[in-house]
Amino acid sequence: MTRFKATISYDGSDFAGFQEQPGRRTVQSEIEKVLQKLNSGKELKLWMAGRTDSGVHACGQVIHFDLEDPRPVERIRFALDTQTPADISIWKLEVVASDFHARFTPHEKIYEYLLDNSVSRSPFKRRSQAWFRYRLDLGLMQEAASKIVGTHDFEGFTAAGGSVKDKVRTISLATVEKIDESSFRFRFRGSGFLYKQVRNMVGTLIKIGNGKFPVDQIDKILSTGNRHFAGPTAHPEGLYLKEVIYNEDRK
Amino acid sequence: MTRFKATISYDGSDFAGFQEQPGRRTVQSEIEKVLQKLNSGKELKLWMAGRTDSGVHACGQVIHFDLEDPRPVERIRFALDTQTPADISIWKLEVVASDFHARFTPHEKIYEYLLDNSVSRSPFKRRSQAWFRYRLDLGLMQEAASKIVGTHDFEGFTAAGGSVKDKVRTISLATVEKIDESSFRFRFRGSGFLYKQVRNMVGTLIKIGNGKFPVDQIDKILSTGNRHFAGPTAHPEGLYLKEVIYNEDRK
């Protein structure tokens, strides 16, 4: 048995999310189909660093899986990359210790959110960026984002009905930048994120940037834990799981 | 009658080209459907600066059309922009003199071609850039591109079977740049282009960059007019009609 760690990208537009679901096209099922061929036809499971929802993209999702007959790493990577559909790319593959686990080995994740803020939506950005046509103030969004940094109970930023009890998480980075004349990039780094937390934070920052909420709406959401004070969940096409950084790689 | 000039963008991926064709989804037919509604249900024709083929994009295609009842320009632009599908954007609209003609008023066009030169094709670039996985030498491609500039008979760079007799055209600009760690941008400016000329020039430059043709293959193609000396037609997904510059606007 050899354990492999793969770093992958995918365009989430045409997937019902990462995780396997009966009868739906998912990233996991497309990759497992190819892995089974490479595993002499025997079924096998892969593990991912983090699930992504329907329509959400990844540039640096990490998965792991075990194969019985090891072959040269580049040959396996090439087979996986070329046999999976064009909206999935397997761009890095490494052999790792058998106790590595994509999900349970401690790590931080970086999420990015891209937003097209032009009056007329660009046809070239419609699958890769969300769109908000009204005025946005960069300074207000930056000030509000800085209030997210730290260890907080993020109850007010998660979707109702999640099974996780402890909603305390640490966000070490939360920034907003302008990347061209009409696009904004939001970036968040942390050791764990709740269900829809990033999209709810972005939805709230957009309302603040548009002047519909004051900057200290963030404090109100964090202190009350009340989802109703937060903005709407931002659309999935702007969200990217950008990078997964394992603590053991940082030694 | 009021004549309108519109500047439009479209993602060509899901169109059978710009020009109307029975039973196919084209940019022209999608826009004419909406124009007819704005024209009190009366059919009308639009004219475009240049046809684009199936899969080819535009950032700055220019069209013109006439409407009987003039309304505020921004209201018409907004209606056209929002009622056309998401892969078409009408981002600029102006009233022009009744003798303006998108195609026959003298102009120059700028075409751009984007090429992803990474080993593993990016899922995010697969609709917006062509892909070539092997090594490309920027310097060789730049040297070869400079040989294209000037007034030449471009017979050897056009597809067979075109109806145009005179194949002499003037290219005032032909450049190749690296725009990020793995992407190249080719740019061509001229007063007229032959059928598939840009894609055939790019296909030839790629062969030169990969060392399969010498740099002076360009001279050979221009002097003999023989299509067989040129490279294959480059894929449509990398090509953009970037800008149309009318001579009268430059006064």
UniProtKB/TrEMBL annotation, chains A, B:
Q: Give the record's subunit note.
A: Homodimer.
Q: What class of enzyme is it?
A: isomerase
Q: Which reaction does it catalyse?
A: uridine(38/39/40) in tRNA = pseudouridine(38/39/40) in tRNA
Alphabetically sorted, this entry's keywords are: Isomerase, tRNA processing
One matching Pfam family is PseudoU_synth_1
- MF terms (GO), sorted A to Z: RNA binding; tRNA pseudouridine(38-40) synthase activity
Cited HAMAP family? TruA (MF_00171)
**Which residue ranges does the record assign to the Pseudouridine synthase I TruA alpha/beta domain?**
6-104, 144-247
The processes (GO biological process) annotated in the record are: tRNA pseudouridine synthesis
Q: Which SUPFAM superfamilies match?
A: Pseudouridine synthase (SSF55120)
Q: What lineage is on file? A: Bacteria, Bacillati, Bacillota, Bacilli, Lactobacillales
For this protein, the Enzyme Commission number is 5.4.99.12
Please give the CDD domains that the UniProt record associates with this protein: PseudoU_synth_EcTruA
Q: What is this protein called?
A: tRNA pseudouridine synthase A
State the function annotated in the UniProt record: Formation of pseudouridine at positions 38, 39 and 40 in the anticodon stem and loop of transfer RNAs.
User: Where do the catalytic residues lie?
Assistant: 53
Record-listed substrate binding positions: 111
- Write down the InterPro entries for this protein, in alphabetical order: PsdUridine_synth_cat_dom_sf, PsdUridine_synth_TruA, PsdUridine_synth_TruA_a/b_dom, PsdUridine_synth_TruA_C, TruA/RsuA/RluB/E/F_N
Similarity section? Belongs to the tRNA pseudouridine synthase TruA family.
